[in-house]
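Reviewer 2 asked us to include a model.

Predict the structure of this chain.
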Amino acid sequence: MNKVMMLLRTQLVRLGNRVKPDKRIWLFSSTDNRHFTYNSRYLFLHVRENHPGIRPLFVINDPVLREKLAEEYGQEYFIETESPDGIKKALSAGVWFTSAGLPVYGPRLKRNRLIINLWHGVPLKKIALLDPNEGALSRLYFRRIFSDNYTYILTTSDRLVPVMRRSFGVPEEVIKVWGQPRNDELLAFRQKAVRDTADESVQVQETLRKLCGGGLPPFKKAILYAPTFRDERSTRLFPFADYDKASLEKYLEENQLLLFIRTHINEKEIAAPFLTDRVRFLGNEQVEDITGSLYLFDLLVTDYSSIYIDFLLLDRPEIFLPYDRAEYLADRGMNFPYDKVTPGPKPETMEDFCRAVTDSLFGEDPYRKARKRCSRFFNQVTEPCCERICREVLQKTGAEDERRN
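Predicted model (structure tokens):
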């Protein structure tokens, strides 16, 4: 269902049914209401496990995925919003959490409920109303249907509040530094401080083998290569004039490394020419939401994706490949000076790339101090935040908090 049809159908349901929202029903949604991803996923799972007095529902309009999730977590947790009955169920919830968009569209939806935008990352790039590619009509629509409906929008640092305020066109008090639920697993993992033990290394390798369906060669360290999606052009992988498939494979073999490519879901076909025994593809089919699996990797390679800001929480090395920086920044723009907030080498040849990998994984890790400074700037919330968000919402709604012992 397109957005205009969803808006019209929602309005018809609202006119014909005076639904009183229940503050004990919390509704979750993510991208296009068709994915079980981002912060919504992680907060939903926390509520399901820890707050039996709350009824959590997740909107999944993909029937195949909805059935799969229902089998795994329970039929009672997943709904659709493409039918009048589904829309009525969504409107019955007194609290909505979203990571992208809304479960249903319409004006004045927050009049009798809390609508909390968990968002899905740190705004390294210009987003929403600051995106230079958005036209006047699109901006007006965004304000009326999205910005005006949000009770709160969450972020990870006081320093990001002004950027989020301008991006969404909301008063500063709407922006709350409550953190990102998707980072709770990374923070909990870091607190355990067991990453380098022999048992943990074996566990990590076994997990990666399961994700890839087995068949991985022996390896000591794993690299994740996750470039961002370009709106106007295709992404270039390994953008080096001296790129050589066989040479890279030899380097990875000699150093017992595995490199996993994760492209945007719309570009998964571009990885095929680069795949070898030690260069594997790790797409949405294997891991729909990569954040909870970042701890599996010893090194991150990216360009403009804010995934690197999540990865900073692990205090592990990063390499950046901004081969089209001038074009990309002209098209999209950045909220922060790129070189000042990307603490890692930026190799321009494959020889330099391999050297950077060696230095990062086996050398002195020269960017560690810079990473820590950058992480302090973006990641003010350094403790798991799901329970705090629940407490804030319970306090504001007055809903009964029944905990499992």
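The chain has a mean pLDDT of 91. The two ends are 42 Å apart (CA to CA). We have added this to the supplementary material.
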